[in-house]
Amino acid sequence: MEVLVVGGAGYIGSQMCKYLSQNGYKPIVLDNLVCGHRESVKWGPFIEGSMDNRELLTQLFKKYEIHAVMHFAAYAYVGDSVTDPGKYYYNNVAATISLLDTMRKNHIFNFIFSSTCATYGEPIQTPITENHPQSPINPYGRSKLMVEQILDDFLDAYGFNSVILRYFNAAGADPDGEIGEDHRPETHLIPLILQTALGQREMINIFGSDYSTYDGTCIRDYIHINDLAQAHLLALEKLLNGSIGGKYNLGNGDGHSVKEVIDMARKVTGKKIPEKITKRRPGDPAILIGSSYKAIEELGWEPKFADLYTIIETAWKWHKDNPYGYHSQ
Asked: Would you tell me the crossing angle of helices 225-240 and 11-22 to the nearest 10 degrees?
């Protein structure tokens, strides 16, 4: 069965393609390579292009017997969304509408959407459940929430069925070491720590040490990309079996502080990893932990790489073998 993976050359999208292939599906990758890497496309055909190209999409839908579409093609830098919101509203919202409309015209009504905990904004309770109010505090989070609302309207008007998966902090790398995390610029904590371990950075900055947490640093919920891929496959099978979609948080339900992640990376790598305390970043909540109870109960999701050591260990294998990312290959 063929599945179109938009953004399938990216960090999570490429892992999804491998997971689909391992489970008997054929991923068709559409990616404009603005953020993705051609080297990460190893399962199924690759088409270079963007999701707002209706003519190209129509050709793909005629060429392949696509049963569902998975969307991993959003811009996802919070700071960048604040300085250039137009870029985010065009790609994350307008281009996604173009994709959805082209799907509808070609009678494809199953859609898996990568959303984010950023749609919740400042948490008023933790762990965050799917019923938590959605009040995003930046254009990135707002763009994702807009698409969620559009999908609700498409269901009501067109019978367009979707599953919305709200990620917390995606982390780790392919357990086999074939593909991994290579963002430019890199903003995620674990790869920044591992770049420091490799000597590519002088030290890792800790943004604030006076939060109301057990060691004063921010606490986040880290989820392995292979576990994310498993949840997406379960969501896909839910739709293909004729069930109505839904909205699910994806996290481990257990948070780790910045200092705890650095200490664990020292244990995994055997490196000293210098650190520096600096001032807080605006808008950083002290604690972000998600409840995934609903995904476990309704989708049958069973995270297999939940412990922090394993998450960092898989990431370290990738970064050590590919110190310059895909440019090392």
From this structure: 60
